[in-house]
Amino acid sequence: MSHDLTSLLREWPYEPGQLSVRIIEGEDGRSKIQLRLDLGILQMEVEGRPDGQRPEGFESLLELYEAHLDEHMGEGGEPDAFALDPEACRSIREEAAQYYHRYVALFILEDYEGVIRDTSRNLRALDLCAQHGQTEEDRTALEQFRPYITMMRARALASQAIKDKEPKAAMLAIDEALERIRGHFEEAGSPDQFDQSAEVQLLQGMRDALAPKLPVSPRSELRDRLKKALEQENYELASILRDELRMMPDQGV
């Protein structure tokens, strides 16, 4: 069997400036994600670790080290006493890059649940290194990516909510992400970077586009009608609307 990939690459040509992703069926009968790059094709598993490896039987190195932390805590150890050496942190960073490639591909495929899963997983990787890395470099190396991962997770949550016709849930996901990113910059001592962040600007743009789609609450609609009735000096209608407002349970909106 020839190992030359030329025919495969010719069948799926690379398009500059465009991320091309597809799902194929592997020889093992399971679906695989393929990402076309300029120099070839990147293939990943749809679930589990993208390269299909299972370190010491765990889904990933992150799960392995989290299990070590749980064991340490279960034996009465203090959280601060659990430390990841530079080699462990390097391995976690390299593994996180695999999940990054996959959640970007999944977003293009509109598999938002998969994006939520993988971005949530990578945020756990950031937290583990930030809290337990032995060196300052290992504790901070991944933090530069926190706004981006948070943004991608929020986009997936919001996109899924929009598909489910839940615009309020979409707005909530965006607002929570913006607050998390704000907290990240404040903790880093650079709150002024919040407004300049590309991730923030993208989420705010998504929020602005979503706002007109939010349903108007019955209470807000009654208030608007009352205001209009008063402006038109229709006091009889205004009195009726006031009574309706008084009878309506207050839901804070």
Quick overview:
The protein is mainly α and 253 residues long. It has eleven helices and three strands.
What can you see in these coordinates?
- This protein is mostly helical and 253 residues long.
- It folds into 2 domains: 49-213, Serine Threonine Protein Phosphatase 5, Tetratricopeptide repeat; 218-247.
- It has 11 helices and 3 strands, in the order H-E-E-E-H-H-H-H-H-H-H-H-H-H.
- It has a 3-stranded antiparallel sheet, covered by helices on one side.
- Helix 3 packs antiparallel against helix 4 (112-132) and helix 6 runs parallel beside helix 9.
Summary keywords:
2 domains, Serine Threonine Protein Phosphatase 5, Tetratricopeptide repeat, 11 helices, 60% helix, 253 residues, three-stranded antiparallel β-sheet, mainly alpha
Give the arrangement of secondary structure elements.
Blueprint: H1 6-11, E1 20-25, E2 31-37, E3 40-45, H2 61-74, H3 86-108, H4 112-132, H5 136-140, H6 146-163, H7 167-187, H8 193-196, H9 198-210, H10 218-231, H11 235-247
Antiparallel strand pairs: 1-2, 2-3
Helix pairs in contact: 3-4, 4-6, 6-7, 6-9, 7-9, 10-11
Number of strands: 3
Looking at how many chains there are and whether they match, the oligomeric state comes to single chain
Tally of helical segments: 11
What do we call the CATH topology of the largest domain?
A: Serine Threonine Protein Phosphatase 5, Tetratricopeptide repeat
- Roughly how many Å apart are the termini? 67 Å
Mean pLDDT across all amino acids: 90
Rg estimate, integer Å:
25 Å
What would you call the shape?
extended
State the name of the first-level CATH class of the largest domain. Answer: Mainly Alpha
Biggest beta sheet attributes: 3 strands, antiparallel
User: Low-confidence segments, ≥5 residues, pLDDT <50?
Assistant: none
What is the N-to-C succession of helices and strands? HEEEHHHHHHHHHH
Helix content: 55-70%
Instruction: Output the structural class.
Output: mainly alpha
Q: Per CATH, which architecture of the largest domain? A: Alpha Horseshoe
